[in-house]
């Protein structure tokens, strides 16, 4: 998801044309698997071992920094998504071949399961149980569910828009994309953590839910982020995208 140069050298062009099917289709999925596994491990471990009384600050920083690193090291291979909602939004914006959508999702979900499993393996049983394995459990059945869905939509919209504008949109993409994306996740956790937990990522929700067998209001963390991804795709295709992305207001 790093910014791309406007011109390509002969060496780069030859590399592109000589890529194998593994490089084109499998390697990006491998990168998504490892990036997601490391991100989810760090995120779950930070929640499970958050016993110092710092509230949401520790998980917010851990998730944000971990995602920034994962994005930075995988951007040149897969685009550095680590999030099914991001992959959907990027695909709708034309930044990913649609044939890779489902393989990316599969890699991200598998990575999330491995990451959550590793977090359980290194955590004390007491802390793991108390934190529900890092699964999201802050929603109470007191009318908060609707607000949680809205919070997930708004903050995931912010995240997916940041990804697309900083890494795909030609008029605004920047080499600071990994930093911007990780910081947006931290902001999302700090801003929406008290309402929904600040998940913004179906893979991040699924991994610990499976490992801890904790499914309370799990659907919220699918509906909110995926709706947000569709909204970002619509906004970029109609209003905010560069002329290559936008389908409206283009020169005849």
Automatic annotation (TrEMBL):
It is a multi-pass membrane protein. GO terms for molecular function: water channel activity. Keywords: Membrane, Repeat, Transmembrane, Transmembrane helix, Transport. The chain crosses the membrane at residues 25-48, 60-78, 85-106, 148-168, 175-196, 216-240. InterPro entries: Aquaporin-like, Aquaporin_8, Aquaporin_transptr, MIP, MIP_CS. One of its GO terms (cellular component) is cytoplasm. PANTHER family: AQUAPORIN-8. Belongs to the MIP/aquaporin (TC 1.A.8) family. This is Aquaporin-8-like.
